[in-house]
Amino acid sequence: MPKWKYFSYNPLSHLINSSVNEIILPDLHIHTAMSADATDDAEEYVNRAIELGIPVIGISDHFDFNPIDRSFGCYDYEKARNTVGELRAKYNGVIKILLGVEITYESPFHDDIVAGLDGKDFDYVIGSIHYVDGVMASERSSISEYEKRDTADAYGVYFREMLRMLDSGLVDIVGHFDLCKRYGIEVYGPFSEDQVPDNLIEKCLRTMIDKNIALEINSSGYRQSPNEPYPGEAIIRSYLNMGGRRITTGSDAHDISRTGSGLSEIGSLLERLGIEEVFIYKNRQPILFNIG
Ligand SMILES: [Zn+2]
Ligand SMILES: [Zn+2]
């Protein structure tokens, strides 16, 4: 029986079947209909999260700067801020609702990203690498590109861009750290640090620790071909061994049926790794969230 329990202050805990031993973690990675690849409104997510007993959710729609992105031009900051503000008031004391955002970092668009984020009051910015040299890593079509490249080339490109993102100072959290494995594993086999050249994984983790940038454990990988989170356990262990402690959790839901999906597996993983705290963010500041 897991020692982990619902957060003690969760006012809805009496509604939850006490025989359920799920670990309820914050879900800081959620896409609403404002993202071109997602459906459902923020309030529908809030209601689903309340049903599940999730204590904190963060709305983190795509804010993209490359015109080839599906979500390019979709992001409406005023609408997101107002929606979250209204929901916070309506569900005050029931669930914490945060306003995050997920940017795609691509160095050619660095200046546009700086300008796009300027003056906006997010609780946190998730920075994600979605491309391997212009190839969308979250789409199956990336396989044909990988077949033309060797492992070190494809993964090297991905993590070198991540290093540039980490140096940019623009992001609080790295989203789905090793997304490149999603389809990469179908060409290159099981993903491991050894496949990535120049110690780039270690360099990224070291930079994150030095710059206080959080590592997201993203559960969407459980429902995709890797069948493990982004990043997998070995990389999380490396991060911990290097002294990293700033972990966030998210489902990367693109519809309400995925709200909190896979977070109980992540809870078990964190327990196995002896991690008793994760972080949420408010006004770009990390807040410790005890789960032990
Ligand atoms: Zn993403
Ligand atoms: Zn996402």
For this entry, give a set of tags.
binds zinc ion, disordered N terminus, 12 strands, 292 residues, 17% strand, TIM Barrel, eight-stranded parallel sheet, alpha/beta, 9 helices
Q: Which radius of gyration do the C-alpha atoms yield?
A: 18 Å
For the sheet with most strands, the description reads: 8 strands, parallel
SSE ordering: EHEEHEHEEEHHEHHEHEHEE
The secondary-structure class comes to alpha/beta
Small ligands present: zinc ion
At the first level of CATH, the class is Alpha Beta
Mean pLDDT equals 92
Low-confidence parts lasting 5 or more residues at pLDDT below 50? 1-21
CATH topology: TIM Barrel
Instruction: Please identify which CATH superfamily we are dealing with.
Output: Metal-dependent hydrolases
Summed up, the domain count is 1
Termini separation: 14 Å
Based on Cα principal axes, name the global outline.
globular
Which architecture does the CATH hierarchy give at level 2?
Alpha-Beta Barrel
Query: Would you count the extended β strands for me?
Result: 12
